[in-house]
Amino acid sequence: MSDPFFHPVSGFDLPRFAGVPTFMRLPHVDPDNPRFGDVDVGIIGVPWDSGTTNRAGARHGPRQLRDMSTMIRAQNGATGVRPFEVLNCADLGDVPPNPIDIMDSMNRITAFYDRVLAAGITPLTAGGDHLSSLPILRSLGKDAPLGMIHFDSHTDLFDSYFGGSKYTHGTPFRRAVEEGLLDPERVIQIGIRGSAYDNEDLDFAAAVGIRIVRIEEFFARGLDDVMAEALDIVGTAPTYVSYDIDFVDPTFAPGTGTPEVGGPNGFQALQVARLLKDVNIRGADLVEVSPPFDASGGTAFLGVSIMFEILCAMAGK
Amino acid sequence: MSDPFFHPVSGFDLPRFAGVPTFMRLPHVDPDNPRFGDVDVGIIGVPWDSGTTNRAGARHGPRQLRDMSTMIRAQNGATGVRPFEVLNCADLGDVPPNPIDIMDSMNRITAFYDRVLAAGITPLTAGGDHLSSLPILRSLGKDAPLGMIHFDSHTDLFDSYFGGSKYTHGTPFRRAVEEGLLDPERVIQIGIRGSAYDNEDLDFAAAVGIRIVRIEEFFARGLDDVMAEALDIVGTAPTYVSYDIDFVDPTFAPGTGTPEVGGPNGFQALQVARLLKDVNIRGADLVEVSPPFDASGGTAFLGVSIMFEILCAMAGK
Amino acid sequence: MSDPFFHPVSGFDLPRFAGVPTFMRLPHVDPDNPRFGDVDVGIIGVPWDSGTTNRAGARHGPRQLRDMSTMIRAQNGATGVRPFEVLNCADLGDVPPNPIDIMDSMNRITAFYDRVLAAGITPLTAGGDHLSSLPILRSLGKDAPLGMIHFDSHTDLFDSYFGGSKYTHGTPFRRAVEEGLLDPERVIQIGIRGSAYDNEDLDFAAAVGIRIVRIEEFFARGLDDVMAEALDIVGTAPTYVSYDIDFVDPTFAPGTGTPEVGGPNGFQALQVARLLKDVNIRGADLVEVSPPFDASGGTAFLGVSIMFEILCAMAGK
Amino acid sequence: MSDPFFHPVSGFDLPRFAGVPTFMRLPHVDPDNPRFGDVDVGIIGVPWDSGTTNRAGARHGPRQLRDMSTMIRAQNGATGVRPFEVLNCADLGDVPPNPIDIMDSMNRITAFYDRVLAAGITPLTAGGDHLSSLPILRSLGKDAPLGMIHFDSHTDLFDSYFGGSKYTHGTPFRRAVEEGLLDPERVIQIGIRGSAYDNEDLDFAAAVGIRIVRIEEFFARGLDDVMAEALDIVGTAPTYVSYDIDFVDPTFAPGTGTPEVGGPNGFQALQVARLLKDVNIRGADLVEVSPPFDASGGTAFLGVSIMFEILCAMAGK
Amino acid sequence: MSDPFFHPVSGFDLPRFAGVPTFMRLPHVDPDNPRFGDVDVGIIGVPWDSGTTNRAGARHGPRQLRDMSTMIRAQNGATGVRPFEVLNCADLGDVPPNPIDIMDSMNRITAFYDRVLAAGITPLTAGGDHLSSLPILRSLGKDAPLGMIHFDSHTDLFDSYFGGSKYTHGTPFRRAVEEGLLDPERVIQIGIRGSAYDNEDLDFAAAVGIRIVRIEEFFARGLDDVMAEALDIVGTAPTYVSYDIDFVDPTFAPGTGTPEVGGPNGFQALQVARLLKDVNIRGADLVEVSPPFDASGGTAFLGVSIMFEILCAMAGK
Amino acid sequence: MSDPFFHPVSGFDLPRFAGVPTFMRLPHVDPDNPRFGDVDVGIIGVPWDSGTTNRAGARHGPRQLRDMSTMIRAQNGATGVRPFEVLNCADLGDVPPNPIDIMDSMNRITAFYDRVLAAGITPLTAGGDHLSSLPILRSLGKDAPLGMIHFDSHTDLFDSYFGGSKYTHGTPFRRAVEEGLLDPERVIQIGIRGSAYDNEDLDFAAAVGIRIVRIEEFFARGLDDVMAEALDIVGTAPTYVSYDIDFVDPTFAPGTGTPEVGGPNGFQALQVARLLKDVNIRGADLVEVSPPFDASGGTAFLGVSIMFEILCAMAGK
């Protein structure tokens, strides 16, 4: 059982529109807080979008995700899991990025996650654009390469953009494989779709053994079958879960920078996360929520609902 | 055949963007109008949201539903039913609530529906938050408990909020069962989902015999099967239909106060209403449309499309 | 004193967000209504924008103006006038336009206003684009040319568009002068500004004696001085007031098709209308409110506030 | 292989948010351009909505479709087709309509397409409202009646509106059949739904042999089966493809004038277009995108994604 | 000099879009926090709008005001005051209201402010609707009646609504005078305008000696002159400042429930607050910011800019 | 007289909502176009916001400014200047930035402007964030330091951000002075306001002789007086005009990343630009329009209206 210090504020005590909005109404425990060492799962914001090649805005993601997260209650309606009673959960605050300097920002992020790992905390990240995953993996994968279940409409396996820029939100997993942070044979990418520049990313995936499930296959086989394959691929070894909100159909998640028509609906978006409960999750992220493209917050509400499912998967093991 | 006095204005005579917006372009016949006694089905607005525990706004529902209802034409495309030629339909206006006083408002609503029933009119209500259903049922169910088919993502069966408040939009059907207005063994709730505080509502439902179909079951069995069960449960006795717009997926119906990710789409939202045609409908409501959360009116347009299906179900018997 | 039948519904009896939205919550009295002959001032919607050369949408103006007009109360705060107690006011409904046929629509509008005039009613119109003024003037000015105080950022005095089209929202007053409906020497246009194609309109104005007050002059002299001149120009003979919402700065009134930067603010927008109280107003319109460009309704709220000032000017004589 | 002159600008060379927005970042080649004769497929805007009987705004469609089309890349992710390398594609600009004169506008449109056809170009049109299809067919179908695959929620087969207006966006295909531009026995309409005034359109369809697939049938049989029938109906003779964006569910495509609840989702919207690859496409249009009802551009993004699928179908033969 | 514990986080250390959003990036110090006793000025949210007679939404005010407050920096540009270095400032969190029970909520608010006062903290409140001021004054004015400078477009001096409801956002200062919490001869209300039901409020004001400055007088005399009178009226005795955001023109502050056209602009909105620096401020509030009517947050940004000016006035004495 | 090749398309020939949107409907003449050498004034987009320290989005500025610029006609209404008949004007397209690399982007911008200058073209830039001005000045000011009239709410004279980042949109003019591109004694900054971190920028300005006119002084003296001083400071030597849209009040220009309450209105925003006609303008920019924060385009419409005034000032000499 968890420590009541880490229980979220109930909507019966303080209405859900009220209060300082921390993630899921959890206590705000930054790394200098004396309770930091007692946290099991830490929710961390990475308000950073300097890797974005097209429409920026994901830097505002953590703020809006916190705001909408106050709609989340204590218990998973579908599974009955009550994660906050199983794990000590906390809002660890945001990593302070340098919006002007990509390399400096990546170093800051890796350093923050090093502290999180040193404290034995499993990180659940709210991005930020997808380049965020690279500096996180530099911390989580530094000792041994991780497997990864990756939900996205893009592979993010390109080599470079704009004449040689190596660090963009289209390249993080190319880099992560090259740096030995991911074991490509234990990586599966689900939901890939949309128009493409060329096949450079697919060729790389094929060469190193990454499994790609395009959206047409996803719909044809059904999500249970695809997820069974995913669990088989990553096995029982430590695994990272990376969930790009643009995996979901852009009508359900318009607030993102690079939408692609024709993805899963909201129910399916939750269901795939729910099926992660037997994965050995070393860390997870939900990235690319971009509030300027969805002022109403519907995308962020879906995003935190997914984060809650991932948290329940962590708690339900 | 209906009286032409009660026919809606055609879009061929007056374009649909024009005119004073009554419900479905019907005549406005308030209780003091000499034609009040000739009405078969009366559409009534209940612009009231004082029972809302989270995000208010449903008080604006009737206005926006009237506005969008001018998009509705004379004939059901799928079934061929022309309800306005079968039944004398009218817009009965809005019940005047007291936004500052819950008890006063409930009394006003019950009194209004008592007049409607005395005139032999079947009420079709545009809410308002879900607490509206309670004072309506106090009129419709006063002689004998009704059955109910209830579409929603929440059970609204809680006992109280905020340290003892008994009358909120999360409690109406708990009260209605306690007051003998509903026969719980003839009640089915469809679409329940989302995170929960606890199981208090489910325990109550189980204790009194209310049937709950969670969304996972709904999708797994398919809507035809679930609706067949619903018709079996309510049987041929008088039945109330209560349709909370948050039954529908929030991407299809963002304009509501307490959305829950992962519900039915627009086609399914209509289809379940279409399948009510063999129900003995004593009254029906469509509640929780909250325009401040969907300025574009898409939610209200879906809402009136559902209301039209319910009206056709009433006419198609 | 007015007949209580014509009093608006009070917000103390029915909250302002409730009820079927007629103009200013007045009774809906269409020309076939037995009380039609008792009306002093009739508010009429002209939901028509077929004369629009650029961005359409004013066809939706009357609907949104009715909606926002429920914010208006009984008494002018600045002047103390209570117009609904002085004059029998009513919502006469909308003129049914033919959105596909300009000539047919203009004939329908003129015919409607002929009935209004025959009943001795002073019309206060909610447009519609500015071409609406022409068929109205064909009714009001048919016996003798009227004077006009015209608030606008455009003169609407052009000859034709797109290679010869004579009837657009840029030409109504050229036509009205040519047809003898307006006495150009008793016409003043206030607020003219923005970039121009050429000087054709100004040359016409100069040739026939129309007085134009550009916005630079308006701000330099102050509105009291300009309005004094306006009253002097129109004198005591019958006068039409035409108020294009794009007279107001587009930040205050974004919901319009052809905005021009740098106009009066909201206070000034009301103040010029307030100063019409000694004008012999034969009819008035408020045109070019285009809801698709201001979903929030702020433009319409300003528009009905101006209409209320004009109504008070009519009542305050 | 296509001429590199006709290749779109790559997002690697110029980020996708940058540059003058032509359709799919293609060269702008108007009819007076010396390269006009080298174009294989020309994308043409018809910024015109004078046939709209309800909510206008489709005149703004081409502008927003161009804007969102910069999100499209070089290769179809699902099929691997690279259309710009197969066909010389270009943005031919917009047909200049006369917003005040329907007959003049139709003549202008037909004249423009006559030039396009004379140059041997296959036109892919971005509307505009659905009346646009009529003057286009007057050019494409003048020598011999065409077959048509028509995606829509409405049949657009009515005779007239508002007391005799023959040219509206609800009548183009009635006129086209009457004028011998379409062979009704080779016409199929898919997705029909929503409330109706009467059965006049259905009776006409039955009389002349047009096949109508209502949305209920579409969902019941599945899209592969329906599309197989469609291909069978039109056969190998020249065929027009007309795609009204309101075919798609209004939650996925809110930016349109006459939405109807309960249509296909985004994935299905693309999939039906993808299945056109064996059709002998003489021309195609995507109409009724109305930006004032979807300021965010999601509808236009879906629209251009559909246009890209149609283009790939043209290239993939 | 203030304690560095109470300094806000600098935008140079953590970008302003990052971090858990407390008011002005101050530490969150709730009443149970050991540093509570060291606070000089406490910013408090009252997320409550149960007194709203028209359009609700102010319950969401504190959340959005916190969000936008991260745009505020350390120093007043106009006056050079650095309030956070002069006073120990903190975010004291939100008072937990009971959205279903007005009396319970008022008791909770008064109890919270009693704790604040007992700790010697000067409260700066972010509402909430204007009824919030009453329970606050029941704490602040319990020992001796306060003076008040009140910026608003309404007097909020009515007796009751809807047939006798005494506690609404239109009645707080009537109640406060009756309860002896305010000294009416030391009360001035500035900016009053808009249409009215009747003169009941003005008659009350005249009877008890409240000074009302209508907007026409405000603009005619200029704000310096009016504010000089205001300071003269309240003198040097303890004074409450109540700032309703609808004092400001609705184009500058659309996010409010009861806007009135024709108020001060943003510069004037700040300037009147800046001129409070010689007032003996016992407490202050900024109320009626209603985010559902301004999703973009412009109203809240103006609101927190006003709160910062009031804070600087408190610090600049 | 200008060459008709460079005349914009008239709204009488092609309605203003139609056509490929180039700046002010001018021909698109990129540097490789044979007519490049004939251009007098070139309008250039710099779609780049990598220097933004807070809310990004100005990368989308040129696109939306082009879109709204189609509202501009041929003649200045206030001054009668017809700039397109005086000067050969063209849309030179966008500089291709590298969104991932600040240094690379600055080099690309400077190289582009070197070509523009080599062709004898006066550049009028549509940003982009304010860091854009630095690489432009590196081209324009490379031979001799320029004077500058700078409209803004911020000085942009800071030394560095986030622990040493030297190139942000808060530092361009500090760098430009240090690099000898601007003559600080011929620089005036007008409109400065808002909260501040500290006085580092003001101290630098004082040390090097830059004149700062805060907004309070601007309003107190009036714009004519301030602009007279500005013209006196820059004299007759070559001068750069830099116009940050956040100079304008955020209610008039919400679409910007770092708004500050209390600035000039739309009329004043145009008027200050109109008064530049006797300045020796070597180049000018309008920066910081950020469409994600104003989807309606009102800010961009104001922005292009200002650009048109600057162009008329260039033409009116």
From TrEMBL, chains A, B, C, D, E, F:
InterPro entries: Agmatinase-rel, Ureohydrolase, Ureohydrolase_dom_sf, Ureohydrolase_Mn_BS
Keyword flag Manganese: yes
Annotated Pfam families: Arginase
Cofactor details (free text): Binds 2 manganese ions per subunit.
The keyword Metal-binding is assigned to this record: yes
Entry EC no(s): 3.5.3.11
Residues annotated to bind Mn(2+): 130, 152, 154, 156, 244, 246
GO BP of this protein: putrescine biosynthetic process from arginine, via agmatine
Major enzyme class: hydrolase
Needed cofactors: Mn(2+)
An annotated Gene Ontology molecular function: agmatinase activity
Keyword entries, A-Z: Hydrolase, Manganese, Metal-binding
Family that this chain belongs to: Belongs to the arginase family. Agmatinase subfamily.
PANTHER family: ARGINASE/AGMATINASE, GUANIDINO ACID HYDROLASE, MITOCHONDRIAL
Listed NCBIfam families: agmatinase
Protein name in the entry: Agmatinase
Native organism: Marivita cryptomonadis
Name of the gene: speB
